[in-house]
Design a protein that fits this description.
This protein is an all-alpha fold and about 400 residues long. The chain contains 19 helices and no strands. The chain is about 70% helix and about 0% strand.
């Protein structure tokens, strides 16, 4: 076997490291994978696995983004993300192609992920206990951990995007390996210690979904494991001061009258959500264009939502609304929202239906990640940034592969 036969698997395996080094590196990996896929198809004279509604949906989304580009309030801002969205359906096809072609090499991917994540997790523990990580980086916010990301607080997103798929791959082969359980608990504890509220909630839900749906254990064991996770979560929040500040004290001081709507409005991201709603009201059908929230938010007022709070009424602008659905509504309007929501719903239903038949743990872990990314109101990064989208669509790639290997 030539180096070229192994190269795609090493490239996918290097994604966690590439995303730490910078999105430029991860984009280069993506382009290499796509080039190898196209080269392989030309060589074998194959049109490989295009005929699927998932790919049709993503191509429809791409065409809509191209159309929407010409309606954007800032053509230059929207240009690159609109044109190059096509890399994601191609990435899905590329990863699936190589995994279907050589499934025995899939262990390369997950082994590299486990090695990378082990180093990342150990590094985060070092930063938590000593204030600096292996490279001497201090977190920009002393209540949270950044690890190798230095000044960027997004390591938890990386952890929840890659850990459980890698864990599930090896767990399916070695269910009684005690080191896997130690790794799982170590991962969960450090995930909480990152103090990224939204990703901790999502990561906890992912593990509970995995525990409750995994077919190998009796219901009593599943409930016990879920209770242990929630117990660890609760104890850490109430006994570790930085966690208590974020999860208990900040929320308890909010005067919300036990109203979910008020919790959202008075949260740190509430002004951004409200700004996106106001932008949508003025651009209902097609929105203002990808990446234009930072411009459009300057032209709207949210004073009516905060009549007695000048600070919040003036803090509605940011680079993006920090919530996927609000971002799609403001950037792409009702048309884009319907297209994206249809795709999200279709894939969610198909994940559930396929898992009920196959009981595939890789599908379960990636599907749980995918579904938790779509929870309304919880803050998110921008859906259209390279970092978040790459993690999202790598998981969708493994979901798509899980569908195809059973056909």
């Amino acid at each position: 076997m030539t180096v070229k036969n192994y190269l795609p698997f090493y490239l996918v395996g290097l994604y966690p490291v590439a995303l730490i080094l910078g999105t430029l590196i991860s984009e280069i990996l993506t382009l290499f994978l796509i080039a190898l896929y196209i080269s392989d198809c030309i060589k074998d004279k194959k049109k490989f696995i295009f005929n699927d509604p998932i790919i049709y949906f993503l191509i429809l989304i791409w065409f809509y983004l191209l159309f929407n580009l010409f309606l954007s309030i800032d053509f230059q801002l929207s240009l690159m993300r609109s044109i190059f969205f096509v890399r994601y359906p191609l990435l899905i096809l590329a990863i699936t192609h190589f995994l279907i072609k050589s499934p025995e090499k899939s262990q390369i991917i997950f082994t590299l992920w486990i090695y990378a994540l082990t180093i990342i997790i150990i590094d985060l523990y070092i930063q938590f206990f000593f204030g600096k990580n292996i490279l001497g980086y201090e977190s920009p916010w002393d209540q949270r951990l950044s690890g190798f990301f230095n000044q960027e607080l997004k390591v938890a997103h990386l952890l929840i995007g890659f850990f459980l798929p890698a864990f599930s791959f090896f767990f399916q082969k070695q269910k009684r390996n005690i080191f896997l359980y130690i790794a799982l608990i170590s991962y969960f504890i450090i995930l909480i210690l990152t103090n990224e509220r939204s990703n901790i909630i999502k990561g906890t839900l992912i593990l509970i979904i995995f525990a409750m749906m995994a077919p190998y254990f009796k219901i009593k064991i599943k409930i016990l494991f879920s209770m242990i996770l929630l117990g660890i979560f609760s104890l850490m929040i109430f006994f570790i001061q930085p966690l208590k500040l974020r999860f208990v004290d900040e929320l308890s001081t909010m005067k919300v009258d036990n109203s979910l709507i008020n919790y959202v409005i008075l949260s740190n991201y509430g002004p951004h959500y409200l700004s996106s709603i106001e932008i949508f009201k003025n651009n209902k059908i097609f929105g203002t264009g990808i990446k234009t929230f930072r411009i459009a938010c300057n032209d709207i007022s949210i004073k009516k939502y905060y009549p007695n709070d000048d600070h919040r009424s003036k803090s509605g602008c940011s680079t993006h609304p920090h919530q996927t659905y609000f971002e799609i509504l403001s950037d792409l309007g009702l048309t884009g929202f319907i297209i994206f929501s249809s795709f999200f719903l279709y894939l969610s239903v198909r994940i559930v239906k396929t898992f009920m038949v196959t009981k595939d743990l890789l599908l379960l872990s990636c599907g749980a990640f995918y579904i938790t990314q779509l929870i309304p109101l919880l803050p998110t990064g921008s859906f259209f940034t390279s970092f978040g989208s790459t993690i999202f669509f790598i998981n969708v790639s493994l979901i798509y592969y899980s569908f195809k290997k059973y056909e």
